[in-house]
Design goal:
The protein is mainly α. It has 2 domains: 80 residues, no CATH class; 159 residues, no CATH class. It contains 11 helices and 2 strands, in the order H-H-H-H-H-H-H-H-E-E-H-H-H. The protein has a two-stranded antiparallel sheet. Helix 1 runs antiparallel to helix 5 and helix 4 packs across helix 5. The radius of gyration is 23 Å and the shape is elongated. The two termini are 34 Å apart.
Length: 263
C-alpha cells in the first residue's frame, strides 16, 4: 500500500474507489483471507464482464484495506445511507450488516457463557438442593447492563435450577457420558440458554433468563451447538422438547427463527 495514496486516507474515498455495489456484492470474497487477489480478480471479471481488468489492481487492495482496518461495518452503514446506491445493493448491505452483528453478538455470548459457567462451578454445590418445579408465569425482561462477566444478566439460581430439573443429565441423550463434579456427587453438565440472551431485543417484554429456556448439556453437545458445522439434529431435538414450555412463559419462536441465532 502506498501511504501517499489519498484513496486510503478516508473511508468514504476508499469505498468510492472500490465501488459501493462491488464492495457489497463481493463482501465475503474480500473478507476471505484464503482467497488471493488474483482469484478475486478473476471472479470479479467473470461476474462483471464489463469491468476493466486493470481496475482490479487498485480496487481489491483498497477493499481489503477496509477489512484490515476493521472498518467493514462502517462501510456497510455508509452504503445503506447512500441514496446514490441501487436499492438492491443497499438491501444486501443491510442483510450483511445484520448477519455480521448477529455473529459478533454470538461470539460474545459464547465468551460470556463460559465465564459464567466457570463462576457457577466455583460457587454452587448441588447435592443439598431440593427438587425444583417450573413457575410458568411470564416475567418482564431484565434490565440489560454490563457487568464484570456479561452484558446480559444471568442468574446462577436459574441455571442451577435448570441443571437440577434435568437430573444433571444431558437433555439431548441421558445416556451421554458425563463425569462427577469436584466437591459434589452430582454429574457435570453445563447450562445453555436455548434462545440466546443476545436475542433479548427480539423479545422486548419477556425475560429470557428462565429455567424453561435453560437446557442441561454434556460438554460435547454444548460445544457442538457453539462450534459444530451440523447442529440440526441436536438443536431440533432440544427445540421440540422445550417448545411448549417456552410458550408458557411468553417465548414464541419457530425452529427456523431459533436456528438463525446459531448461524
Amino acid at each position: 500500500m502506498d501511504k501517499k495514496d489519498t484513496k486510503y486516507v478516508d473511508l468514504n474515498i476508499t469505498l468510492s474507489a472500490v465501488g459501493k455495489a462491488v464492495f457489497v456484492n463481493f463482501y465475503y470474497d474480500f473478507k476471505n483471507a484464503a482467497l488471493s487477489n488474483n482469484e478475486i480478480a478473476e471472479k470479479l471479471l467473470r461476474e462483471n464482464p464489463g469491468s476493466k481488468s486493470d481496475n482490479q489492481n487498485f480496487r481489491i487492495p483498497r477493499a481489503r484495506h477496509i477489512f484490515s482496518e476493521n472498518n467493514q461495518l462502517d462501510a456497510l452503514r455508509i452504503i445503506i445511507d447512500s441514496k446514490k446506491v441501487a436499492p438492491e445493493a443497499r438491501d444486501k448491505a443491510k442483510q450483511i450488516l445484520e448477519e455480521e452483528l448477529a455473529q459478533m453478538h454470538n461470539s460474545q455470548e459464547n465468551v460470556d457463557e463460559r465465564v459464567f459457567i466457570e463462576d457457577l462451578n466455583r460457587s454452587i454445590i448441588y447435592s443439598d438442593q431440593a427438587q425444583f418445579e417450573y413457575n410458568n408465569i411470564p416475567e418482564p425482561r431484565k434490565e440489560t447492563r454490563t457487568t464484570k462477566t456479561s452484558l446480559y444478566q444471568r442468574s446462577k439460581e436459574v441455571s442451577s435450577n435448570a441443571l437440577m430439573k434435568a437430573g444433571f443429565l444431558c437433555e439431548v441423550d441421558a445416556e451421554h457420558p458425563v463425569f462427577i463434579r469436584k466437591h459434589s456427587n452430582e454429574n457435570y453438565t453445563e447450562p445453555h440458554h436455548l434462545v440466546p440472551l443476545f436475542a433479548q431485543n427480539d423479545f422486548p417484554d419477556i425475560n429470557l433468563d428462565r429455567e424453561q429456556n435453560v437446557v442441561s448439556l454434556c460438554s460435547h453437545c454444548h460445544n457442538l451447538l457453539h462450534y459444530g458445522s451440523d447442529i440440526d439434529e441436536v438443536l431440533y431435538k432440544l427445540y421440540m422438547s422445550r417448545k411448549e414450555l417456552l410458550k408458557l412463559i411468553g417465548i414464541e419462536i419457530s425452529y427456523e427463527e431459533l436456528k438463525k441465532y446459531y448461524l
